[in-house]
Write a structure and sequence with these properties.
Blueprint (H helix, E strand, L loop, with lengths): L1 H14 L2 H17 L2 H30 L1 H32 L6 H12 L2 H13 L3 H13 L3 H16 L2 H11 L6 H26 L1
Helix pairs in contact: 1-8, 2-9, 2-10, 3-4, 3-6, 3-7, 3-8, 3-9, 4-6, 4-10, 7-8
């Protein structure tokens, strides 16, 4: 039980540090720009976090089964395409957040409704994109988990406890706050606020694409 607690606390330290810095700007801009409110922001964070944790579980098992070198090689082979595809998806979200409801085409309205208004699938994809393109410290932890685990089930549990630790992050409280900000604004300021949030998301997506080129 002590080792599970150790991985949970390690995940918590990541959630309050590297993961907050890496995921914070993207998720907070998305949460604020879509104006989800208190309950909506909480649900969005849960979906985002658990989809990210699912990727950690998959990586932990992959490293246990195939080894760190093979897994890193496989990820490296596809990372260029993942950066471009993930970045393009994030840019699309940013554009819809920036434009808001100022869409005249029926098809654009339909796409915006699918990705912004009814956005459970969007949050899952977003969490997976962030999870599958992790930072170097995170890769080292997942690699360590895969290497010390005696069975694939141990690797799964270690990764789960670590992932749950990352979810217990100040990002949750910040997400609740940013989700409430649009409720306090008048319509004109809200348009500028959504534009700014959308542009931040577009910028972060463009940075991902640049890493893949």
């Amino acid at each position: 039980m002590r080792i599970f607690l150790s991985f949970f606390l390690l995940g918590f330290s990541f959630g309050a540090g590297p993961c907050l810095v890496a995921c914070g700007p993207l998720f907070l801009s998305y949460s604020a720009g879509t104006g989800k409110g208190l309950a909506g922001s909480a649900l969005a964070y849960i979906l985002f976090s658990f989809s990210r944790i699912a990727v950690y579980l998959a990586l932990g098992i992959a490293i246990f089964l195939f080894g760190q070198a093979m897994t890193n090689y496989a990820l490296g082979s596809f990372s260029r395409y993942l950066y471009v595809i993930g970045g393009s998806f994030i840019i699309l979200l940013g554009v819809f957040i920036a434009i808001g409801k100022n869409l005249n085409h029926a098809f654009c309205h339909k796409i915006q409704g699918a990705f912004i208004k009814k956005d459970a699938k969007t949050l899952v994809i977003l969490g997976m994109v962030v999870g599958i393109l992790p930072c170097a410290p995170l890769i080292s932890v997942i690699s360590y988990i895969g290497l010390i685990a005696r069975t694939w089930f141990d690797s799964l549990l270690f990764s789960l406890y670590f992932g749950l630790g990352t979810a217990v992050s100040p990002l949750f409280l910040l997400a609740l706050f940013t989700g409430l900000i649009p409720k306090w604004m008048n319509p004109r300021i809200l348009k500028l606020f959504n534009l700014a949030c959308g542009l931040v998301v577009v910028f972060l997506g463009a940075r991902l694409i640049r890493r893949g080129l």
